[in-house]
Amino acid sequence: MSAIEPPATTPDAPVDPEPPPGTPPxxxxxxxxxxxxxxxxxxxxxxxxxxxxxxxxxxxxxSGLYDLDDGGAPIPGTYHEVASPQDFGERLNDLFxxxxxxxxxxQSTETGAVSPDATGDLFGAAGVFLFVLAIxxxxxxxxxxxxxxxxxxxxxxRLKGRGWLLILAIMAVFSLLGTVEGMAEETLxxxxxxxxxxxxxxxxxxxxxxxxxxxxxxxxxxxxVNPFSIGxxxxxxDISIGDGIVLRLIMxxxxxxxxxxxxxxxxxxxxxxxxxxxxxxxxxxxEQAIQSASAEPEPMTGRQKLVxxxxxxxxxxxxxxxxxxxxxxxxxxxxxxxxELGWWFPELAAMFIVASIVVGLVGGLxxxxxxxxxARGAGDFIYPALVIVVARGITVLMTNTQITDxxxxxxxxxxxxxxxxLFAVVMFLINLPLAFLIPSTSGHATLAMPILAPxxxxxxxxxxxxxxxxxxxxxxxxxxxxxxxxVMGGVALAKVRYDHYLRFVAPLxxxxxxxxxxxxxxxxxxx
Length: 527
Fold this sequence. Notes:
By secondary structure, the protein is mainly α. It is 64% helix and 3% strand. Strands 5-4-6 form a three-stranded antiparallel sheet. Strand 4 (106-108) and strand 5 form a beta hairpin.
C-alpha cells in the first residue's frame, strides 16, 4: 500500500484501484483544487495554534493555587496567587518539549511539574499511543486475511435499505457504554470496523464519525452511573452516586434519541444524494457501496468465519475488561469483584498485539507476511497516534505554568453571584472553559468539585445538580474540542478533516446546549 492515499473524489469522478479499506495513511492527502486558496489546516496545525495560544496566555493569566486536603482535593476559599514557577527560558523549553512530555512526561510527586526526567507518575499519553498502534496492527491483520472485507460485504448486502437500523443499534450500544462506564478513548479501536461498514451501506465517512464520536459522546454527556465522572464527582461532593440519577437518566435518554435521529437523518440524505456529503468521497469509497448493492458476495470460508469470531470476541472482551463492574453495581467505593479485570491501555495494547498474531495464524498468513502486516498496520496508524500525543502536550503547558487553579477560582466567583433559579445553568456555563483546559472527566471532577459543590448549599439547590451540570459541560465540550484525543484521533482515523466535522456537529451541539440548559433550569426549580 502506498504511503499516500489517492485524493478525494466526487461521486462520479473516475477513481484509481481501491486501496485496502480501513487503513488510515500517515497524513491526510491534499484535495484537488486547493492550490492557491486557503483550506482548513490539518489536525497538527490546529493543535500547534492551540499550543501557542495557551503558552502565550500563560504569560497573562497569573499563576495560582488552592490549598489541598489530605486526599489531594482543593479546599474552597484557599485560592492564592503564587509567583510564576518558570522563567521565560523554562517556559520556552516546555513549549519545545511539549510533544515529548505529551508522550512520556512524568509528573513530579514533589512539585507537580511534568518533565521527561522527573520522578513520579506517568502524565504523558504513552499508553494511548501504543494502544492506537496495536489497534492498527490488529485491524490491518484482520483485513489481510480477507475475512472482514467479505463479512462487511455480506452484512451490507443483507441490510440494503435498512442501514439506519445498524446505525441505531451501534449508537445505542456506544451511548449505553458511555453512560455506565465513560467509554471514550476506547472507541478509537472501532474505526477500522465502522468506517468500511458505513461506506459499504452507501454512506460517507462522516456517518462513521457520527456513529462513534457522537454515539459514545452523548452517553458520556448524559452519564448516569459512570464511575469515572459521576462516581468521582459524587465522592468529592460527599453525596451518593445515585443522587440525581432520575434527572440524568431522562437527559441520557433524550440526548441519545436526538443524536441517533440527527446522524440517521444525515446518513439517509447522503444515501439518497451523495453530492450532499460534507466530506465527499475518496477513491474506493463509492465502490464499496456499489459492490454491496450488486450480486450477493461469495460465501465465507471456514477460516474467515473463525477470524470474524475471534475479532468479535476481542472487542467484546475489551469492553468486559475495562468496565468497573463493582463500581456500577455496588457503589464507587466498593472493592473490585474477584473476576473483575480492571484493564486499561497497557493491558489493552498487549491484548491487541497478541490478538493480531492469533488472527494472522488462524487466517493462514505465513511468518513473513504476518510480521510484515503487523509492522505495516502499526505504521499506518502513526498519524492519529501522534495527534493524541500533541494534544496531551498542551495539557502539560497548562499544568507547568499553574494557571488552571486561577481559571477555576474565576468560575467559583461567578457561581457565587448567581441566583438559585439560574445557578445550575451558570454551573454548566462556567464549567465549559474548564472542560477545555482539562479534557479528562475524572481530572476535571477532582479539581472542580470540592470547590463548586459547596456552592449549591448557598443557592439552596441539591448538590447532585452541580454534578449533573458539570458532567454535561464536560461531555458537551468533549464532543468537539481539539484538545481531546477522542475527537482529534477519531477524525484522523476516519480520514475526515476537523473543520468538516465541526460543520457536521455544530447544529447538534446547539440542540444539546439548549436541551441541557432547559433540563438544568427545570431541575433547579424542582430541587
